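Milestone 3.1: sequence recovery, worked example.
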């Protein structure tokens, strides 16, 4: 691998829920295949969780593990500026480490799905690059519109008077481009306007935007979302079998809760017709 190529700074905000551990397992194993990158995994909580620390240690990717909880005033609002605290912490981390090697910043949500070609492609970003993201909204796609190699507009199912009606997964930025005017590098805590506010702060002219993914004709990132589900609370009595340890393993990932009262999980013994 060419060590002179730009580093990828992949920023992932994450928060505790049932799907968190499986989703980060998938993402970490995608990123394992990406050379020359640093993964900034930033939790929406006050202390780094041990289960994520051990996931990071296992995954053999250079990483930074931080916390940056959502400010308390948003905990009570119906719509929340998700991941904004964490992305701002990552931006500050980059800006306050001028010794970092040249590279490209990309905001990779923990539930999105990435084609490895995306990471190869965004490494080329000189200023700000943009590209399609699939499974977005009712139309199934968000993308820049490209004519003669230039971004001339956007498709999205919601424009909302935004100058840059793009999703978080639809752009990447060369970190050099951030350092021109560090005072303007911030993501606003404004639901729906996080990307627009951030890009308005840094993009100087339309021609700075570089269309990627073969002229925005390929989809190499998907806005997937796991269906939210309730935490089942299961009786962890396992007698002398594997079940007690299995359930406690699963509990440590936050996927089930356990109790010692109530009925256990039904077991189908061998040589019986279980219905
Ligand atoms: C869309 C965009 O793709 C997000 O990048 C954007 O932050 C979000 O809308 C928004 O503006 O609210 P969506 O799938 O609706 O994404 O949001 P989530 O995937 O639920 O959250 C985005 C990121 O923030 C995820 O990495 C998630 O783990 C994190 N998050 C979410 C938190 O850190 N705290 C929360 O309370 C919720
Ligand atoms: Mn999402």
């Amino acid at each position: 691998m060419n060590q002179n190529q730009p580093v990828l700074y992949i920023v992932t905000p994450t928060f505790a829920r049932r799907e968190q551990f499986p989703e980060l397992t998938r993402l970490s194993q995608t990123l394992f295949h990406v050379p020359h990158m640093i993964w900034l995994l930033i939790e929406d909580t006050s202390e780094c969780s041990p289960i994520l620390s051990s996931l990071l240690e296992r995954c053999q990717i250079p990483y930074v593990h931080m916390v940056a909880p959502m400010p308390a005033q948003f905990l009570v609002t119906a719509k929340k500026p998700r991941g904004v605290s964490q992305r701002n912490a990552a931006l500050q981390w980059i800006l306050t480490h001028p010794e970092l090697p040249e590279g490209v910043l990309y905001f990779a949500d923990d539930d999105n799905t990435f084609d490895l070609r995306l990471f190869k492609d965004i490494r080329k970003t000189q200023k700000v690059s943009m590209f399609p993201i699939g499974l977005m909204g009712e139309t199934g796609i968000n993308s820049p519109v490209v004519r003669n190699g230039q971004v001339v507009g956007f498709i999205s199912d919601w424009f909302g008077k935004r100058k840059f009606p793009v999703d978080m997964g639809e752009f990447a930025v060369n970190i050099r481009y951030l350092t021109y005017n560090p005072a303007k590098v911030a993501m606003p805590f404004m639901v729906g306007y996080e990307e627009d506010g951030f890009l308005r702060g840094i993009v100087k002219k339309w021609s700075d935007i570089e269309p990627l993914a073969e002229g925005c004709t390929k989809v190499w990132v998907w806005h997937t979302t796991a269906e939210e589900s309730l935490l089942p609370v299961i009786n962890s009595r396992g007698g002398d079998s594997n079940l007690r340890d299995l359930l406690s393993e699963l509990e440590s990932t936050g996927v089930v809760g356990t109790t010692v009262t109530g009925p256990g999980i039904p077991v189908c013994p061998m040589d019986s017709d279980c219905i």
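Residues 61 and 110 are 16 Å apart (CA to CA). The chain has eight helices and 14 strands.
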